[in-house]
Amino acid sequence: MRVLVTGGAGYIGSVIVARLTARGHDVVVYDDLSRGHAAAVPASVPLVRGDVRDTTAVRAALVEGGCEAVVHMAALAEVAESVAEPDRYFSVNVDGTAAVVEAAAAAGAGRLVFSSTAAVYGAPERTPIDERDTMAPANPYGETKLAGERLLRQARSRGALAATALRYFNASGAHGACGEDHDPETHLIPLALRAARDGLPIRVFGDDYPTPDGTCVRDYVHVADLADAHIAALEALPGVQGSFNLGTGTGDSVQAVLDAVEAVTGLRLLRETAARRAGDPPVLVASNWRAAAELGWRPRRSLTDAVADAWAWMREHPDGYTER
Ligand code: UDP
Known about the structure:
By secondary structure, the chain is an alpha/beta fold. It folds into 2 domains: about 1-170 and about 220-245, Rossmann fold (3-Layer(aba) Sandwich), CATH 3.40.50; about 190-220 and about 250-315, Alpha-Beta Complex (UDP-galactose 4-epimerase, domain 1). The chain has 10 helices and 14 strands. The strands form 4 sheets. Strands 3-2-1-4-5-6-11 form a 7-stranded parallel β-sheet, sandwiched between helices. Strands 12-9-14 form a 3-stranded mixed β-sheet. Strands 7-10 form a two-stranded parallel ribbon. Helix 1 crosses helix 7, helix 2 (about 55-65) crosses helix 4 and helix 6 (about 190-200) crosses helix 10. The radius of gyration is 19 Å and the shape is globular. The chain starts with a strand and ends in an 8-residue tail after the last helix. The model has no long low-confidence stretch (mean pLDDT about 95). The chain binds uridine-5'-diphosphate (UDP). Uridine-5'-diphosphate binds next to helix 6 and strand 8. Uridine-5'-diphosphate binds near residues 186, 187, 205, 218 and 277.
């Protein structure tokens, strides 16, 4: 299959590109490089630089690349930033998805896989979270992704596209030459690895949650497992469409993640309790039976694998991607 990956220079997108290529698919990346890194895209993969809201440019990239399918990853994805700049989030994430849907339909690229998020659920009504549970996003980021899923549903119902949305829980780890390098970095695992390496403290945001050790529990799913779910979803279209949780089905507390960081690095962490971060629910764990049953997807890698792979990447790239 020839596939356009929007946001293919980003953390998860670049791993999807690597896995698609390894499976023999032809890939074109479309990215504005505002968050992604050109160095994350292999030299053999064409990189088209453009704005995801530019329907004409996305369509041209699809037609020139001879693409039959789109993996739409290009988005802004920081919760706190979305609260500060909701209009920007709606513009890039919702208008951007509308543009990609329109361009794909016009170019005859009839299969689309969309990057969604557990943030569509907001504070969950039960654990683990099932796809049929109430969707009540607690921030603009989650709202924009829910709006994106609705655009997909509309496109499906008017016969424009076959489409699937994948709701990620906590993406983690690294894969080969592709790793996690956000600016600023906000995610627990890279921050903890850096803290361990540099002998600096790591802040634990809240230790009085109603969880076994008092810290938040999350479902850390390895980025290579996430990437493989996109391939399964693409290859299952148009027969299987819908929205699927992508998580391991098990949760780990912040303390458990920090224990894993110490075990993998052999270094001690200085743990400092800090105030709760606004809007963090105590527990976010996916029910993943639906992705297993309908896409045949099962995560294969553990939290320790994710921490070990992230650590290996960080040691090979001590300054992250260095082109900026
Ligand atoms: N967290 C923390 N210290 C940090 C960064 C994150 O205690 O320096 C906690 C955060 O409150 C959450 C968990 O680690 O409970 C995972 O946070 P992350 O930002 O990695 O992902 P999120 O769950 O927000 O998508």
